[in-house]
Amino acid sequence: MALFVQKYGGTSVGTVERIEAVADKVKRFRDEGHDLVVVLSAMSGETNRLIGLAKAIQDEPCPREMDVLVSTGEQVTIALLCMALEKRGLSARSYTGGQVRILTDSAHTKARIQDIEVDGMRADLSAGRVVVVAGFQGMDAKGNITTLGRGGSDTTGVALAAALKADECQIYTDVDGVYTTDPRVVEGATRLDRITFEEMLEMASLGSKILQIRSVEFAGKYKVPLRVLSSFVDGPGTLITIEDEDTVEKPVISGIAFNRDEAKLTVIGVPDIPGVASRILGPISRANIEVDMIVQNVAADKTTDFTFTVHRNDFVKAEAILRQVCAELGAREVVGNNKIAKVSIVGVGMRSHAGVATKMFDSLAQDNINIQMISTSEIKVSVVIAEKYLELAVRGLHSAFELDKADTVSE
Ligand code: ASP
Ligand code: MG
Prior knowledge:
With 411 residues, the protein is α/β, with parallel strands linked by helices.
């Protein structure tokens, strides 16, 4: 007997039939004797529909009213699931975030959880009830409804699991786990049995958008075992957990992440004097443009080249800012390229293995792919390449690091 927090995403509760299917699943866990707290998203498309209604009235609606509006999507699904559970003879009760007393700060539309009251949920669980909670929402100290940002139901799930010290937080979604890379790009991509929080954060921030990143951080902080699994096909999914000291045979690389949404900007011929990096990037960050990789060359002739990447959507804005900065600095010119992509190999096993980067570069060289930028951290190596070589690069790396065989067990 265990206590599970199960979160079902929008597609899993997208129709009445699917809500009934979730109820069947919940019933199976109850029949096995487990205690369950279920967190639901709104029906798929519903949150977007609500946002659309608001935008039809005002371009920038009041954030407080936005929260009152968008939090309704989850209120619909929790009630319907409880009805489906009651129909199956289970006792269940639905709660909005405020009713649970998921207390947040007052940052409407992007609130952060501060405290969760667990006594009520515990009482329900002891009385044999399934507790069904609306994801994505909470309440501030004054009782205002708040929401946690898009995809926030994942965070609700993890936060409840942490507060209740649940045995596992299970995120049911439309994929059956975390893969070595995107199966749409590499046919031989395999599901990972487990991945560490750190690796998952790298994979998530690099474009494997399965979970809200914040929920993974939260789970890591409270060491909540987090499992991603499909609500449509049975299977073990992928366990996201702390690094297991006992796993001797850790793969060097767990996965390959990539991101097409990048653009690269270079200021050429920047004077090699103190303060230049700050004068280049200051106006960029003041314009709320996020910078990812940064590379500055050795100055050969008292000038240097300064390159960085931004999201492709920010490319034009960043370029305009740089032209201005370029003139002020007396730099030579600004060149940009928005047809680039970033490919990263990720793995905690890298810490104890030399030559991982070299192996990556060898693989790219064999496919005749030019590397434009490189950056590394303890558990990842990222390169920027021309976008048109992205698929080729990912496939080559996937086989170079033998990820196609990750699921094979041999004696
Ligand atoms: N319904 C919210 C959204 O679409 C929260 C969630 O599903 O996680 O972003
Ligand atoms: Mg989601």
